[in-house]
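Quick one: structure tokens for this chain, please?
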Amino acid sequence: METNIFPTKSNLLQAKRSLDLAKVGFELLDKKRVIMLREMMSLMHDIQGVQEQIDVTFADAYASLQKANFTIGQSEILNITNYNIFPDDITIQFKSIMGVEIPVVNYEETPPVLNYGFAFTNSDLDDAYIKFLKVKHLTAMLAAIENSVYRLAFAIKQAQKRANALRNIVIPRLEHTVYFITGYLEEKERESFTVLKVIKSKNS
């Protein structure tokens, strides 16, 4: 392998500094990848738990809605649901994990407010409403977690690519540069020593 760097002591020092930085950079990227991977695996475990809650809650909510359809009438319930009866109580914030912004769903854990009249409704509809509201919150939470997993997976892939570039290209190239310049300077030093020895022997 050849190098275009002129073999001087200053370039040798610069190459050594760059090599040290590249090694530190590789270690940091590897640590970052491990931390993000651990966080992603934890979130993937959360996905399964939230999905199970959604399945159970949705089944219960649908059963309550079927009861309400039977006791109140489907047409009356459709009239009620034509209005926006679910509150806009979900907010999205972001937190940083190793520089990756991931969404966090927030909503107030307060008793639900039924935003419809009670003249032509009953407790079956109330029960369905409360359970579908919980499904809404859980679905938003699931979407945020899945989005977080996607963002972390992308960041892990990018970190791995940069780490591989440092390990397989940058660090070997810098190591060769250090080896090349060191060998060149040592050879010049030996030549100079030999010349001085010859001159000294001639003058003695």
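The radius of gyration is 34 Å.
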